[in-house]
Hints:
- 14% of the residues lie in helices and 39% in strands.
- It is built from 2 helices and 19 strands.
- The longest helix has 30 residues, at 3-32.
- By secondary structure, it is mainly beta.
- The model is unreliable at 1-53 and 376-387 (pLDDT under 50).
- The N and C termini lie far apart (190 Å).
- The chain has helices at residues 3-32, 329-352, and strands at residues 42-43, 59-63, 75-79, 84-93, 99-110, 116-118, 132-133, 138-141, 145-154, 162-172, 190-199, 207-215, 228-238, 244-254, 260-267, 277-278, 283-293, 297-308, 315-326.
Amino acid sequence: MTHRARVLTTTRTKHLLSSLCWLSVAAAIGVLLGFAQPAAAQDAGPSQPVGPNSNSFGFTVRPFVEENSVPRDFLDYQMPAGQSLVDQVTVANLTDDEKTFYLYPADAYDTASGGFALRQRTDPQEDAGTWIKLPVTTYTIPPRSAALVPVELSVPPDATPGDHVAGVVAEEVVAPTTTKDSGGLQQIHRVAARVYVRVAGPAAAQLQVSQIAVNQGGLRWPLLASSNDVTVTYTITNTGNVRVSLNSVKIEVSALFGVSLKSFTAAGDSRGALPPELLPKSRIVLTQHVGSVKPLIRLTARVSVEGTDPVSNSPVRASASNQFWAVPWAIVALLVAGLLAWWVRRRRRRDRQPSSDNTPVTEPTAEHEVLEPVGVGQGGTSSVSEG
């Protein structure tokens, strides 16, 4: 090959490498801008972090992070109304089988016990679930692979200030079958990445404690029991417009003049004693067994809750109380026995006293003339008339 041919070959090779580089850059930009299709499935590998939403279903949905970056647990944003952005989530299939998923956004809500939940795929979405757009509604991922899915978030111009919560859900597509163990219900496998959006404006972190009810376990036997078994049920409501992390709840039972009889503190730790957070306008109903309490007639149950605004770290506190009767059955039993003994003794004493008749005797009065006999003479009879 001549020197000129070698130069032409080298020049063509350089042009080819340059074109390939530009095509790679263009493909990367297309993924970041959220083109119509997710990135091609890529190897998940055993070293890929599973994150906090690991589950027994064999797939995860996690916020995308660059290599050597700090992992994200949630998609968490602070945005003014009317702003938009594009982010990404990674949907990973950790099994040895191919899986197909429904992909959709859904509004979040709290269950009555404080669990974080998302609306169903067929439910109407009304809040942040309507702000999220995904490029596809279904996607198939090969075994041990993951797909990068763009997430477009647009906050409406009229969005109210405060927290709006949703999730990006991957729901496994399965055949509509039921089993005996499921009770005739169709099982749904869903995993989601949470989406927290705090819209700029006045933020009010507020809690309210209400509807405190005390259950003393009914009448205890024997009646001479010296304590009552107390259980307290109460409601915590997030009356503000931002979510609140629940740190602790203290329940205290006291007698007159504030004398403390029993207290119990539930902490919001990994043991699940408290729900981790409470979304705006949500309420939860909790029940806590306090224990044995001396029945000192009129008692007070006070519930105090402490929380934190997870964005500003500002403390949030609320408390309420309710009075209730705690009957001291031992004292009542003694009083009843004493009254019964007094009544029996008084009845017997009255029955033993002799009866005395002091009723005066009244002489009968004549309503007619009284004729008295007189002596009878020889010559006949005679009578004397009084009148």
